## 1
Amino acid sequence: MFGFIRGRAGAAALAIGAMSVLTATATPAQAAVNPANCQFSYNLSVGRVAADCWNSTQSGWYLQVTCERFRNGSQYYARGSIVYGSGVSAAQCDAHTSEIAGETIVNL
């Protein structure tokens, strides 16, 4: 009886292992947008940044701008629209109360 249980447990472990390998190889790797493939434009009078990025895949990404408040230096983030593939994502700080402290391309 114990041989039968061990045989079933071994077969189950083998099946789970095979499925995990299949799952790992079935999902394609998503390519990330390289910031070197982006052209950034700034409108500092309104605190706006736009990133025009080339992306050969349909992977998603967006522009995130770090904004710093004038009165106390605290930071917050402004997110641009999500883009799949190539395109433009723009984000804006409140120019009356803060300034642009940095920008980042966030890959989904």
Note: The two ends are 51 Å apart (CA to CA).
## 2
Amino acid sequence: MPQAPKIVKVEELPASEAKWIEFQKISWQDQSGKDRVWEAAARKTRGKSGVDAVAITTIIRHPTRPPSTIIILQYRPPVDAVCVELPAGLVDEKESPSDASVRELHEETGYKGKLAFISPTIVSDPGLSTANMQLAMVEVNLKEGDEEPEQALEDGEFIERVVVPIDELYDRLVKYDQEGKTVDARLWHWAAGWHAAKTML
């Protein structure tokens, strides 16, 4: 049985050793003309598309099952917790975000689908990071009797996929939180918006 992931040590990372991120000192002037300084983290992997990453919302359609979506569970060292997330990944150097969304969905979940929509470039933590992303919606159409596909994970990836009926997603995330897992903000916002549309409008 695999061991549980754990933090062994946390130490400062010299800039010369950083492969994926860098710190930036941003000098700027505010609306009154006052000089100010801002500290930010930036990815070092942004390719020609100008988009760092994609996250993927999935709609699975099946002849006899309710519309469902796919979420993933994986341990994230920065928060020392198993996180509940949308499938997601970095956009390769010469890849478009649209192509990355279909590729990442297949790699992380095994499912192949068709891109239905992709958002403008958006940010999730602009007070801390220059990182940006696009949010894709991919449709997966299944037939009766289709077997669950195999994931195409890379070495070192430990990702558990979970297929959830969309109408049960919000309650499932609440349960995961109660179990001690950490829910990613993008997934929570999507589920909470869906829940609000059903129950509050």
Note: The chain has a mean pLDDT of 95.
## 3
Amino acid sequence: MEIHLTSEMFLWTAVAVAAAILVLIHMRSQRKAATTSRIPPGPPGWPILGNILDLGFKPHKTLVDLKTRYGPLVWLRLGSVNTLVVCSGEAAMEMFKYHDHSTCNRHLNETMKVGGTYNATITLGEYGPYWRMLRRLSVAELFSRKRIIDTAPLRRRCVDKLIKWIDDEAKEQSEHGVELARYVFASAFNVMGNIMLSRDLVDPKSGKGNEFFNLTSELTAITGKPNLADFFPVLRWFDPQGLKKHTEEKKNQVLDIVDSFIEGRRRQDIEGKQSRNEEQKDLLDVLMEFEGNGKDEPAKISDRNLNIFILVS
């Protein structure tokens, strides 16, 4: 008797094999967890899925309920990823003040790891000499009291433009209302653009600026989407939702625009069209002129890291 495998039978066979592999991985992880040191209490998880379904549609309320049942530290398994939930201020103090070096690095999802560029940023990079250098520059050039006072007129101009945008839009779209969130985000975008690059990045008459704004918004949305590979690392190489591919495409497009901004500044400096004193220098000037000791920090910030820092900021 001959057996002919149809495409549907082949599909179900592949699904069964994949399910069997995931079950074996789950059993192996459970055995490994049983042999490790004592872990905080937590609810028992479902096979393969762990506690993902237990969180429900309002995870913040679920975590409050879990705190009353299990205490200030709750151990969850989201897919095959072990997760420790800190549910009290005292536990957070103990964790992040007295064990800060062990817990200071941020957990990155798979889309944030694309291209390996995260270490060039202060928000995503791992703690170390380079991160401390970026923090020192950011504190001095962005968050110091002097810089905040010096940039007050700049922020005032951006707010005035925001009010004008809303007023013009309200006159043109009086029946449909105004999308305030987009204008507020664009205004904040311009504040950072002026602090870092001494220019507006969003302007109705500037196609490149608006392209930068739109691409950055799309990139932010992609990196925030739920990704199966974040909960089941075995799937990271398959990229089942195509999020890593889309992230890389958008990131390359945005970095090309950032690079054009930086190259434009270099041309202005070479041609002598732009002369700034210390009071007028923006963050891009500081980063381009940075000179490190070449030991625990680089002698210069590379073009690649400069682009990434500007993009993420």
Note: The chain has 13 helices and two strands.
## 4
Amino acid sequence: MNGHTVPSASSLQASGIQDAKTHLQSNPAIQDLDASKLTITRTTTLRPVPEPDSKEIWSVKACTDHMVMVKWTEDAGWHAPELKPYGPLTIMPTASCLHYATQCFEGMKVYRGYDGKLRLFRPDRNCARLVTSSLRVSLPPFDPVELEKILKAFLAVDGPRWLPKSRPGTFLYLRPAMIGNGEQLGVSPPSEVLLFILAVPWPDLSTSSPPGSPPKPPGLKLLASKDDTRAWPGGFGYTKVGANYGPSFGSQMEGRKRGYDQILWLLNNKQEHEVTEAGASNFFLVWKTREGRTEMVTAPLDSKVILDGVTRRSVLDLAKERLVEGSRYLAGEVGPVDVVERTLTMLEVEEAQREGRLVEAFVSGTAYFITPVSAINFKDEELDIPMGDGTSGHYAALLKQWLGDIMYGNVDHPWG
């Protein structure tokens, strides 16, 4: 595949699937990804399963016993997938991913439910988004339904041992990734690509701290960016490519030195100070308008600056369904909200905080799930964000409960 049209951020899932179909139909000799061809070679040396919330968990190095690898070549398309023992990759020093950032990935989780079942959460969205990301960096598309089947086959092998039924309420982090690994050193799309899938125990960043460290106060403290920008209109901020992440690490480390958990990435910092994302998470603000209505606001997708997060989309879907007038889900401090996707500026946040109109803020994502925000440092002034009961805003707590119930099987829901 040597050319494509970058899909619209407002229809990432549908366009990713359609681009894959169009490409394959125009190249009948090219094989699509086919889960039915998966071969399985089981390991003879099992890896130790770390204890919950242990140092091994927090090291995020303890991958499961197996991994999946699928090769793509320019002349044949997708080869047969292989499930094999976990181990190192071998690539040439001239590989495209090492020089031209032809690399993308996904982040998702598999959950051990309280009913004993293993569940993925909306995996169709992650698989389709990986197609969108791959196209943005000139990697080949595939049928996302087949990737979902391969993920399930992988978890049928490693899930029972690494997420035993004796540990309900636990999860593994899944990392499907694609790299251009052909040998040619040239400024062009790679002629060979590797898709691989890993699973690793992951700490619960929304509730716990590393072993031996003092307990953290509830809520994240965010440091608003000043000079650095994570993404820009028309760029690739809407995709999960490595080039979105590595350049942000310097700002992240500087923020932590100053006592902040994440960077709140702003755009157009000379004037508007537009709020985009918090670290690698989507950002939500709940506030009162001057007319007295409650709004839940998050940045829009149309400028291709932010990621169409699966947790973000789920928050929006649940809020639009349940946080409405007359809903049986409303009680106590939780009233109806207007769900708004629009550009939000820190000048507006600063003004609302000064006028006492802020209700709460939180971040959403696979890593941090739903985590409340307690403070934002903007222009070297710390703005306190209300925290409801002192540990979380009421909306964040309720959304976290709803999503957790779906993920762990406490309620029957199509997303689980």
Note: The mean pLDDT is 92.
